[in-house]
Write a structure and sequence with these properties.
The protein has 216 residues and is an alpha/beta fold. It has helices at 20-23, 29-42, 102-118, 135-146, 160-167, 182-187, 195-205, 209-215, and strands spanning 2-6, 12-17, 122-125, 151-155, 172-176, 190-194. The protein contains 8 helices and 6 strands. Helix 4 crosses helix 5.
């Protein structure tokens, strides 16, 4: 798949062929969903906690006599039915971590990138460079790219000027290409990347001949 390459002014300067193994892969929506659920689950802390009847601080004296009151018999104010009592079957600390093989995670990324490429949502620039952190200037430079939509800007490495410039933009996120993940891919309308970031993605997502034969 050949796509145009633009400069930061929005002028087409050349073209590049996107690797077919990454941007024209078979789309597996079930795998994409599984990868997204895994990432969201692994982001949960699982620190929720309520106190049961053995943990609350209440009197241990019998509430009232056993017989003769006409009421149901009770022996503790820690019971869940009383105000201040313990919570019955409440949430306790737990791990939500899900495991997924690396080959499956990368296949899900290739599926998501293929969906974006087929929709024309991948914008390739020759470079992304800022002389100083300027949010207003960065928003003006990306105005022709996103046109009111959200954008994920992939960087080949650390660039404080670009990262700080994008930090205060609500619909823009700057991300290192090495940290590419399914949640950000599906959460933004446009994917903006320089040629250097495309090389980084090609380096860890491109399917080699041996792996391609195994998957076939």
């Amino acid at each position: 798949m050949k796509v145009p390459v633009y400069n930061m002014a929005g002028q087409e300067v050349s073209s590049v062929v996107l690797p077919a193994s990454i941007f024209e892969a078979d789309v597996n929506r079930d795998l994409m969903h599984q990868a997204l659920v895994r990432q969201l689950a692994n982001a949960r802390l699982g620190t929720h906690k309520v106190k049961g009847r053995s943990e609350v601080s209440r009197t241990t004296a019998k509430m009232y006599r056993q017989k003769g009151t006409g009421r149901a018999r009770h022996g503790s104010r820690k019971a869940p039915i009383f105000v201040g009592g313990g919570v019955s079957h409440g949430p306790q600390p737990r791990k939500y971590t899900k495991r997924m093989p690396r080959k499956m995670r990368r296949a899900a990324l290739r599926s998501a990138l293929s969906v974006k490429a087929s929709a024309g949502s991948i914008i390739v620039l020759d470079e992304i460079r800022m002389d100083a952190p300027k949010t207003k200037e960065f928003a003006r430079l990306l105005q022709w790219v996103i046109a009111g939509e959200s954008a994920l800007v992939l960087l080949p490495g650390r660039d404080e000027n670009v990262e700080k410039s994008a930090r205060n933009l609500r619909n823009v996120k700057a991300l290192h290409a090495n940290y590419l993940n399914i949640r950000d891919l599906l959460g933004y309308s446009k994917i903006v990347m320089p040629l250097a970031a495309l090389q980084v993605i090609d380096g860890f997502l491109n399917v080699g001949e041996e792996e391609a034969e195994e998957e076939a």
